Amino acid sequence: MERPLFAAVVAQLVLGLLFPAAVSAPPVSYVAIGDSYTAAPGLLDPAPGSPPLCTRSAQNYPHRLAAATGWELTDVSCASAATAHMSTAQYVDQPAQFDALSPLTRVVTYQVGGNDGNLFQTMVLSCISLNLGNAAGVGAPCRDTWGSRFSDDIAAYEPAIGAAIGRIGTLAPNARVYVVGYPAVLPESGSCYPQVPLSAGDIAYARDVEKQLNAALRRQAEANGASYIDIYTPGIGHDACRDLATRWIEPPVPGQPNATPVHPNAAGQQATADVIRAVVAA
């Protein structure tokens, strides 16, 4: 070996010993916790290993967010999950969602609360049933039947929501926790019978119930050291009354295949991922 080349090789070896190459940082551990608005039932590509009853999609916003950020995703969201299922098993093959948390977790998204007391399901089914045949949109039969029932339920379950969010900080003390609100399901005014078969009065009633739930999630996020992410405001104008090209939420009779009634469609899941990513980046 010629002396200049030999000297160069020796120099490289010495530099390598003195300044070893930086070890690649491990990927950010991201845990997605949530109900059907997170799990995205109906979208194609079921998530591998997902319990069948959870109907978790590989096209939901946690998967889209992980793909965009490079985070290492553990998605434990499950359709019909309530706050109680954070600490108790929902099904035999769906353990408590908080079991996925650890001190290694760095990011958590949490979107739960709409199934406490069967809030969303009872309101949607009952309000639609009470408006059958009410094409003229007369009055507000759902509001007249239920009154403050749904608001009272939110108030009753809010302490449990707060306790659950606070528990995340104990189980994942090194994580940034983002509480994700629910998107705008209904328009800010008017109605669109029969696409959404509710009178204008009952659309306002159900819309206000959802806003109360989001307000409770925001309060409990702020009270327990988490960040609240508003999905509702960016979704105004993309509600279930809009046309297929505009809406992020499907109406009771979806206008496209692989979509679930009164749930985010593929565009809604992507929009949620985009909003969360922008908040995290900021």
Low-confidence stretches: none
Rg from C-alpha positions? 23 Å
CATH class value: Alpha Beta
Terminal-residue CA separation: 55 Å
**Helices and strands, in N-to-C order?**
HEHHEEHHHEHEHH
What's the architecture, going by CATH? 3-Layer(aba) Sandwich
Sheet having the most strands:
5 strands, parallel
- Please state how the strands of the largest beta sheet are arranged side by side: 2-1-3-4-5
**Helical coverage, percent range:** 40-55%
What is the general shape?
globular
The CATH topology corresponds to Rossmann fold
Secondary structure class reads alpha/beta
The total of helices stands at 9
CATH superfamily placement: SGNH hydrolase
List the domain count as a whole number.
Answer: 1
